[in-house]
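Quick illustration, no need to memorize.
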Amino acid sequence: MTDEVVHLSVEGGIATITLDSPRNRNALSRQLMTELFERLEAAAKDDAARAVVLTHTGTTFCAGADLTEAAEGGMAAGTAALLQLLRTIVALPKPVVARIDGNVRAGGLGLVGACDIAVASEASTFAFTEARLGLAPAIISLTVLPRLDARAAGRYFLTGEKFNGCTAAQIGLVTFGAANVDGALAEILAGLRAGSPQGLAESKKLVTAEVLAALDRQGEAMADLSARLFASDEAQEGMTSFLQRRPPRWASEAE
């Protein structure tokens, strides 16, 4: 049997879901997305859990799409699975808190945007790298754009620049960047433990209604766009060059 790459534990009223696939930097492989969906569903049904913490092992929270899988075959199933996963987080009847102490790239930022609260260490790094690979942050735009300052979205979607936890907080991607991420998380969780299950669920509906509506209204079109881009010649070159650790053709032409 394949070892699980997503773990679930419940303690002190908090369900902790841990991404644990350091070999591919917690990339959104078929296995990881399937297991994450299952753990979220289990946490939603567990009366002992008042809220959910989504965290990670290793130096990367989530690296986005598994490019090895993407380069080997079509991404239609993968894009549909990511859409379902993001919708599950947004619609979960319990608050979901991202705990980030490392790198987040591309599709991983969609997970961050889907969470109700996100706490990142100041040293964490973030980047929308899709444009550099011949892709676009299509599906994840539905959970990320409602969070971001519009000028910041234009800059970071287009340039693929890295930015740290403090900048992520300034532009709205995370709730705050902290020197002590676990200390900051403890403060957030204390507040959530004081809420009633009904109060938390109904309050969450108020702040997620527009995102949920956008996912339902535009999700299928964004998933189709993402699958089409992954199948394009440019994206194949972008992913291949990334895996081969060389510049893509268009980068060489620009020099």
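The chain has one domain: 1-180+197-255.
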